[in-house]
Structure formats: structure tokens, C-alpha cells
Amino acid sequence: MRALREKPRLTVAKLLAVILVFAAGMAFAGALSEDEPDVPPGTAAALTRAERAAQTRSDRLAEAAKDVERLEARLRASRRALRASGARNRRLTRALRSARRRVAQLEP
Questions:
Q1: Residue 39 forms part of a structural domain
Q2: d(Cα 107, Cα 86) in Å, to the nearest integer?
């Protein structure tokens, strides 16, 4: 009590500092607590529906991406087959032209 009589302002400042530190600690602890905030049932149901819809869309998008990859692979295979058949066609055309020339040379 002697300090209170001699330095009242300092005592009040210390008391306020202790109260502020306590309040800041409580606020910090409240921010760190993992308690779920109170959500009205309608909002919780809407959030649940939105999460399910987002998951469904995500699943469909993943399936579509797989379909695109599969179709791109088929397209690449078709292009390779087309190039190969084009090369085969050119070889056969040359062979046919060559055979026609030989037949033309053999005819009197």
C-alpha cells in the first residue's frame, strides 16, 4: 500500500498493463482455439451441398481430363498410322509405276 500512496500513477499504469496483457492473452487463446463457430443449420446444410457439388464437379473434371488424354493418344496413334499408310502408298505407287514401265518395255 505504501507504493500506492507514493506513486499512484505508476501503480495504475502497472495495473492497466497487467489487465491489457491478460486481455491480449485471452484474445490470442480464443483465436487459437479450434472451436467451430456457431453456424445456423440452414447455412451448414448449404455449405454441405456446395461441398458435395464441388467434389462432384471435380470428379467429373478428372474423368474428362482422362478422356481427353485417352482421345489424344488415339489421335496420335491415328496420325502415326496415317503417316505409315501414306509412306506405304507412295512405295506401292513407285512400284506400280516401275512395273508399268517394265511392261511397256516388254511389249513390242
A1: no
A2: 31
Residue at 93 is within a domain? no
Exposure string over 41-73, b if 16+ CB within 10 A, otherwise e: eeeeeeeeeeeeeeeeeeeeeeeeeeeeeeeee
Number of domains in the chain: 1
| Owning domain of residue 9 | 1-34
CA dist 24 and 63 (Å) reads 50
Domain contains 108: no
CA distance 63 to 108: 68
User: How many residues are recorded in the chain?
Assistant: 108
Contact present, 15 and 22 (Cβ < 8 Å): no
How high is the mean pLDDT of the chain?
87
Q: Is residue 13 part of a domain?
A: yes
Report pTM.
0.45
pLDDT digits (tens, 9 = 90+) for 53-68: 999 999 999 999 999 9
